[in-house]
Amino acid sequence: MPTRLSIFPLTGAVLFPGLQLPLHIFEPRYRSLVGDSLVRDRRIAMIQPQRSEDGAPLYDVGCVGRIGEIEAMDDGRYNLILEGESRFKMVRELDVTTAFRQVEGELIEDDEDEALSYAQRGGFEDEARKFADRQGYSVDWDSVERLDDMSLINGVSQIAPFDPASKQALLEAQNLSARCELLVQLMQFYGRRDGDEEIITLQ
After folding, report:
1. What is this structure's pTM?
2. Backbone angles phi, psi at 4, to 5 degrees
3. CB–CB of 9/48 below 8 Å?
4. Contacts of 159 (CB under 8 A, 6+ apart)
5. DSSP at 53
C-alpha cells in the first residue's frame, strides 16, 4: 500500500538499501525535516530531483532511510548517518504545509537473497579492477572479494563517480543482476579517456 514519505531531494545523492549515507543538514527546511522525523519514525526518503532547482520534478524511484547515528549542534544543524531500508516508487507528490516536501510512495520489495552467477561476479570484479586502475584508485581487493554480491554491487553503485542520471539508472535497475550489468557498462563508458580530457559523462 502507498505510504506517506517526507523527502530530501538532493542531486547526486543516491542511497541503496543496506548501505549508509552521511548527511550534513543545515538548511532550515531540512532541519525541520529531521526534527519531524525524529519524533515520528526516524525515516527520511532520499530522491533525486530532475533539475537542480527548488520545486523541480522528481525522479520516479528513491530510497527510504532510517536515521542511525546523529549529532545535533548548538546552532540547529545536524550531522547524521542515514541507513538505507527500502527503495520506493513515487506515486504522487502531496500538497502540504510543511517546509519540506512529502510524497506518496510504494515500497519496492527487493529480493535480499538474490545472488550473481559466478561468471557475473568474476566479470564485474575484472572490470572494476580495470576501472580502478584507470582512475588511479587504491582498492583493498581482498576485502572486496569477501563482500556479498548485494553489498558489493549496491556499494559501488552508490559511491562510483558517475553523473546523477547514471546513478539514478542504477537505482532504478529491476534487480541485482541488471544493476551489475549496467554498472559494468558504465565503468567501461566512464573509463574512456582522450588524452588529458576529463572523463566523458552521459549528460
Report:
1. 0.90
2. -80, 130
3. yes
4. none
5. S
Q: CA 126, 133, 81, 169: dihedral to nearest 10 degrees?
A: -60
Q: pLDDT 10s per residue in the chain (203 long)?
A: 899 999 999 999 999 999 999 999 999 999 999 999 999 999 999 999 999 888 999 999 999 999 999 999 999 999 999 999 999 999 999 999 999 999 999 999 999 899 999 999 999 999 999 999 888 888 888 998 999 999 999 999 999 989 999 999 999 999 999 999 999 999 999 877 543 455 444 33
For 105-139, letters b (16+ CB in 10 Å) and e give beebebeeeeebeeebbeebeebbeebbeeeeeee
In sequence order, what are the residues at sequence separation of 6 or more whose Cβ sits closer than 8 angstroms to the Cβ of residue 63? 14, 15, 16, 17, 45, 46, 47, 84, 85, 86, 87, 88, 171
